[in-house]
Amino acid sequence: MITHVIKLLLPFYEKEENKERIFDCCFFIAIEYMAYREFRDAELYFNKAISMYSNPRECEIDYKIYRMMCSYYFRTVSRAYDIAEGHNDPMYQKKFMDYVERSVEVWTKDIPIDFMTDTRIVGFLEIVNGLVEFVANRLMECGKKPIPEISEYIEKEYVCRKNNGAFIDDRDYVVYNKLQLNNGCISEEQYVANILDRYREYQDREFKELHRDNRRWDIISLFDDEVKEEDFSSRNLYYMSEDYVTIFYLLTEVLSITDDEEEQRKIFGYISFHLGRLPYINGDYIIDYIIQSSLSKMFTRVNNVDMILNVIENFYVYRQTVTVIHSAMVSRLASVITERLIDNHSELFVGLFDTENVDDVSENRDKFISYAEIAGKCHDVGKIVCTDIITLQSRRIVDDEFMMIKNHPAKGGEILHQIHALKDYADIALGHQKWHNGKNGYPMEFDNTRSKYRIFIDIIQLCDCIDAATDTLGRNYAKAKDFYQVLDEFARDKGSMYSPEIVDYICKDEELVRKIYEMTLTDREMACYEVYRNFIERRVDFMPKNEKYVRMCKEDDVEELAKMNMIDEETQSELMRKCEGFSCVILDGYGHMYGSVYASYGKCDELYIEHMTVPQEYRRC
Length: 621
What we know:
By secondary structure, the chain is mainly α. The protein has helices at residues 2-16, 19-35, 39-50, 62-84, 90-108, 118-141, 148-164, 170-182, 188-205, 242-255, 261-276, 285-298, 305-319, 321-344, 358-363, 365-378, 387-390, 399-405, 408-418, 426-431, 454-470, 483-493, 500-508, 510-539, 558-565, 569-578, and strands at residues 548-552, 583-588, 593-601, 607-613. It contains 26 helices and 4 strands. The protein is globular and about 80 Å long. It starts with a helix and ends in an 8-residue tail after the last strand.
């Protein structure tokens, strides 16, 4: 939406030769393209923005200098993710390293912004190092050899850190060792031994730090005067944090080399632990990309389907809770419908799972129902590519956003096909947005009518529509329908959009209709409850210092509150009298005050905040 508007303005500013406005337009268009994963277009517009000024100093105003500096950095990020998506020939890699060199020069030499301190410069260098390591890792994962400039950069940084006794995180360690293996400096056996040694060190150290401060910043923190100098560290940047690095480098690597199911279960427990320490952050396509690209490797040697589904649910609870709840509902509906169809129209399933007749289908009844249940849970796995749009609940999506949404079946099919234990469900993800007759829907290149799983594609498609249309909790931008209205639409469009056999059966089975209707009223809340319960039980650490309470102010609080609010006691008492009934103090689990709020009624019963005190260290909690 923003891109459309700004693109209309850009020709006008170009005609006026207003380079300041041209720069702003190009910068924001490029940022929007990055969110849509259009990395080449983003790079193009960042280059155009950069071309408006020969160096950041020309911008004069601090916030414009910051945007200019960010243009250099995000141009580098765009090229990095374009390489990760397959555009990785040596010349393309060489350009990436040129971008790295230029962005480091802009951010660390002759900086025209006062608060870009030495500590923050070091932080930025850490960010860039992580970006280079990310590119190297993705190249090696794809069987490509990083160019010498990339290898030399990483090796030089690693050796320098080691010699200076600096902190070496799990990404530094894994990527360096992988490069050593890739360049023939160590054997595969030595590489595996090194990774397992690092994993044992992780087990020894990790839970000793269970309750450490876990605040997370983004790159804007480099310019944020509310972030204390001593607090700032690139290790706390949310997409570079130790939790992410541990999950997507060390633990994923260990999973790719171990066949022991108990050890795999333990590692997935560690992953859940780290996910639970991370905040939900909107606008983070980088994390979605890392999750998507890591799933197949994470499950290379895992055969336990329940374990895999549990981990995928953990990722989606963290990124897209609404998708987890929707998938749970589709799974429940698909199980019920499949069960009734097997009992009454088992001929629809003959040929699947080596069945030759209806008796075989009946004998394998549980297997068919289990398949439907799992298919429902993983049909939307491809939505990991578009978290920002999925979680957008304030309005209907625009055309560009819908085009991005339309990629999720193809991406889901790709992800499931790469996970050996779930590859039999790839057609479900690919086909659940196709019409029954195959003539409409997406992706057009997938022919659902030729899939051996067509009956299940049709079932999941119906269940997907039922939950989407009747959802009263997860889609507050649209008015929900009841199931009887949806059933009328099924009957109207059967034969083209929906399977006529399944629709006809549902319409005739009054008990099933009543059951589905009740499920759309009550089961969604139960699905929400179970998802949140599982999430909370595994993740929330109810330490007293993390608890927050609010109570009304008392006369006994005047002295302490006056000190906290930095006013005299008389003024404090007057403030409490003025806001009687709306004077609140905020405490932690130990009863220590750390904030207060005072409000009063205005005209038309409006509530005015007269005074509020929250210490700086709590503002981002």
